């Protein structure tokens, strides 16, 4: 895709062996992904983008074996990444925010 104003994806699944997502885009205003899953063996997301205004990913999962997010472009134009992983017990929440570097916070 050349330009995307808003890309939103919602998945409701019981069990996923492998979920692989690859995006080739020039400019994205807002990318929002929400996953409701019971168990995921491997979740891999690769983004080939020139400019991203806002990237938001929320994962509601009971068990995650492996999760990977990779970028192949310069992150100098990326203003913020927000990723939240919630378990069923709501005990572990992970918040990732990026402004040109990855910062990790666990609450």
UniProtKB/TrEMBL annotation:
This is Uncharacterized protein.
């Amino acid at each position: 895709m050349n330009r995307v104003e808003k890309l939103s994806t919602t998945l409701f699944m019981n069990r996923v062996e492998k979920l692989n997502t690859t995006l080739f885009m020039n400019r994205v205003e807002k990318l929002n992904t929400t996953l409701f899953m019971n168990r995921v063996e491997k979740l891999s997301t690769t983004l080939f983008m020139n400019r991203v205004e806002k990237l938001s990913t929320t994962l509601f999962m009971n068990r995650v074996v492996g999760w990977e997010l990779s970028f192949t472009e310069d992150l100098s134009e990326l203003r913020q990444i927000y990723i939240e992983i919630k378990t069923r017990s709501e005990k572990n929440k992970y918040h990732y925010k990026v402004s040109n570097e990855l910062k990790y916070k666990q609450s």
